[in-house]
Amino acid sequence: QVQLVESGGGLAQPGGSLRLSCAASGFRFSNYDMGWARQAPGKGLEWVSGSSRNGRDTYYADSVKGRFTISRDDSKKQVYLQMNSLMPEDTALYYCARGFFSSWDDYRGPGTQVTVSS
Which of 84, 96, 11, 5 is nearest to 45 (CA)? Predict the structure, then answer.
């Protein structure tokens, strides 16, 4: 069955960095767009970043452009989110998803918590 497992979250100081990883299994990873979404307490799901199946096309929310970078390694069936210059408003539960926006088919991992605080 489809499994997505995130890791790499934690506590970071403002201006710091974290790298999220997502290990995928149960499907042909290279055939799918992959995305990262987040949900802060009391807020809805926000798409943060996405990568097309070939990695050539990427999406970033305006709030993270220039600070976050998505990448994927199809040989390892992993997708990553490098987060730099973290801000307190980046605090959220971050989910790895199969697809993003209209290509999301409702599969996502359990999430990894990112907390940015001094």
Answer: 96
- Dist. CA 90–CA 109, nearest whole Å: 19
At residue 23, does pLDDT exceed 90?
yes
Rounded Cα–Cα distance for residues 21 and 41 (Å)? 22
Q: Are 3 and 108 in contact (CB under 8 A)?
A: no
Per residue in 45-81, pLDDT (tens digit) is 999 999 999 889 999 999 999 999 999 999 999 999 9
Strands (E), the chain: 3-7, 10-12, 18-25, 34-39, 46-51, 58-60, 68-73, 78-83, 92-98, 112-116
Distance CA 100, CA 37 (A): 8
- Give the whole-angstrom CA distance, residue 76 versus residue 59: 22
Q: Which two tokens stand for residue 36?
A: 């990262």
